Amino acid sequence: MRFRSKVAIVSGGGDGIGRATAQRLASEGAALVVTDISESAAAGTVAMIEQAGGRAAASVGSVTSEADCNAAIALALERFGTVDVLVNNAALADKPTFEQTTPADWDREFDVTLRGAFLFARAVLPHMIARGSGAIVNIGSVNGLMYFGNPAYSAAKAGLLSMTRSLAVEVGPKGVRINMVSPGTIRTNAMSWTKRVQRDPKVFEKLARWYPVGRVGLPIDIAAAVAFLAADEAGFVNGTNLVVDGGLTAGMPVMAEELLAELR
Question: Alpha-carbon distance 137 to 102, whole Å?
């Protein structure tokens, strides 16, 4: 119960990593405000939390809207009295190649993935700073560290890492910690993965061979990392990027096996 008496906001909390994170924080005592652009998705997560005995409220809106971000924080303050944790999870990955990406696509993916995190952080930080405590966890991606396609999304995630570090240094002395979790491939129902699965139902099994742990990730894997960084026990962790990728960026076993085969 690391989050007993604490209040958390999770953006994009209606499915996937966001839903798993909201449920994990609620299971450890947090009251949740779940934000999502889909009313039914946000309500679904809230219902799951309440059915498990937790407290939660839904805030419907877009992270690209300053007014919607402010409304989510106002709801948290009205219903639960404070905001202790913000998880910037909402993101958009659409066009897989640079050639397919139009200027409008670029702007749209940056608006959701990077600008949305900026707007939410900007809205919540005055409350956290006034209290002298708080934690923000941004959801990054290995795409921000290496090339895996989706250039606009990848560039936005790389920008989010820079913003995480900048904010950590700026507001750390004021009692607020800012960190990031960068997932590898996570099996979710996100639009980009749904399209891939429709083309190839075995895509996750094929990708698993690139991961030293032998599988792709699950939303609960990321939720566990977020819970650690958001908790008081991580009080000396600030400005870090926790890569949760099953060892993908540590090395590629398929390539290593092919190299070793030449020596046998």
Answer: 30
Specify the amino acid at residue 103.
Answer: P
**End-to-end alpha-carbon separation of the chain, Å?**
52
- pLDDT, mean of residues 116-135: 98
The 3-state DSSP class for residue 187 equals: coil
pLDDT tens sequence across 94-103:
999 999 999 9
* Helix ranges (DSSP H) in the chain: 16-27, 39-51, 66-80, 103-110, 116-131, 151-171, 191-199, 203-208, 219-230, 253-261
Burial class, 33, CB count within 10 angstroms (exposed 0-12 / middle 13-18 / buried 19+): buried
Our CA angle for 59, 13, 232, nearest 5°, is: 100
Whether pTM > 0.85 for this model: the answer is yes
3-state secondary structure 85-151: EEEECCCCCCCCCCCCCCHHHHHHHHHHHHHHHHHHHHHHHHHHHHHCCEEEEEECCHHHCCCCCCH
Enzyme catalytic residues:
153, 157
Domain range annotation of the chain:
7-193+218-252
Q: What is the pLDDT of residues 5-33, one digit of tens each?
A: 999 999 999 999 999 999 999 999 999 99
The matching CATH number, chosen from 3.30.559.10, 3.40.50.2300, 3.10.180.10, 3.40.50.720, for 7-193+218-252 is: 3.40.50.720
Tens of pLDDT, residues 210-251:
999 999 999 999 999 999 999 999 999 999 999 999 999 999
Give CA–CA dist 223/262, Å, rounded: 40
